[in-house]
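Quick illustration for those who missed Monday's session on complexes.
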Amino acid sequence: MKIAVIGTGYVGLVTGTCLSETGNDVICVDINEDKIKKMQNGEVPIYEPGLDLLFHRNIEQGRLHFTTNLAEAIKHAQIIFMALPTPPGGDGAADLSYILGAANDISKLITDYKIIINKSTVPVGTADKVKAVFEANTNIEVDVVSNPEFLREGVAVEDFMKPDRVVIGTKSEKAKKLLTELYEPYVRQGNPILFMDERSSELTKYAANSFLATKITFMNEVANLCELVDADVDAVRRGIGSDERIGKRFLFPGIGYGGSCFPKDVQALVKAADENEYDFQILKSVMEVNERQKTILVDKILKYYKGDIKGKHFTLWGLAFKPETDDIREAPALYIIDALVAHGATLTVFDPEGMGNVKALIGDKVIYSPDQYAALAGADALLIATEWSLFRNPDFEKIDSILKNKVIFDGRNLYNLDKMIDMGYYYNSIGRKL
Ligand code: UGA
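Prediction with uridine-5'-diphosphate-glucuronic acid bound:
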């Protein structure tokens, strides 16, 4: 099938690349000339495991193209995906100007039937707004479809190639038929393609992310309570996760959820509820608790040093909001850095992928180390904010020989508690005994 993907961010680029992998002919469009030039020269602009291979293979085989020329892409494609940003506007509601702007441009270019697909996370009613743009500008038949993505950064390629489900919001039989053909290769193991109306599809995305954010937040609160009653959150997690109704996944406590999706989507759903005069209380609490959780490591540090960390030096392992990504949007590490520096401490940081982005954002507020062990020099304690695999089994002898004191504050519960105690560490983690 002939496809255009407008917007080459995480979602657009993964979508375009993975759609070309099953034999479709895909043109990806972006207004950023620099980025397009780089991709035309074979450079993948983001770090996403597995993307490189598919990207180069499909370019070489002539199925994946990049352009800044929207008209060329629209002429080429029957199915047009919009994967554009929907940042929170000043009032917390998603800003639709990129989507409606693109719809306006597309509507002026089309000369035959097209399926226009919203891949971005958009408020309920957006498909209707996009439809209205087309109705105002053209008589050509189009179907506007909601098809939210459920990709996780870091495993986005795997998630796209083998989705748990594909959600498609449309009432058009023609669109249903074409999109079933498009997605069938991805659900061969029997996972469902779920058809529904546009509004339910749009809400499904917000409900999914908000539910997951709630699940994590619930566990963060259980963890906080565990510390007070001398229980172990790992045990409680296993105890409840074995109940299939609860499930084992997404129960890991930590230093708050971050990233470009959960914080924005929870906020947008609360806002949408407010606009409809519904007080979405549970989500308001989720937002509040998550704010508090982001600096819980700092509270622990302040308590340990009796409120005075002026002149202390810390090493921070992990900056990205989660492993296997260079994405630092809403990363808890940034809040930790801010708070510690505000209290007069200094930091050396290390992250396998996120340091460039942090440097671009906060410059020389911290010292950057190219090596996880060299980063420990002169530090009073080690702090951990991201569960990268390479932090899971470190050389503790090496850590001992460089770190000034055997003190670790771990926001991701990477190490076995008994082992740490045996090795003589002061090891403060989340929801576990000290
Ligand atoms: C999330 C959803 O999982 C995707 O399904 C969705 O498509 C995506 O948002 C989106 O809307 O685009 P992502 O933001 O990449 O994906 O990250 P997740 O892996 O879901 O993690 C989100 C946050 O929750 C991270 O800060 C992570 O550290 C935290 N988390 C996750 C926990 O604290 N505990 C857990 O057990 C799991």
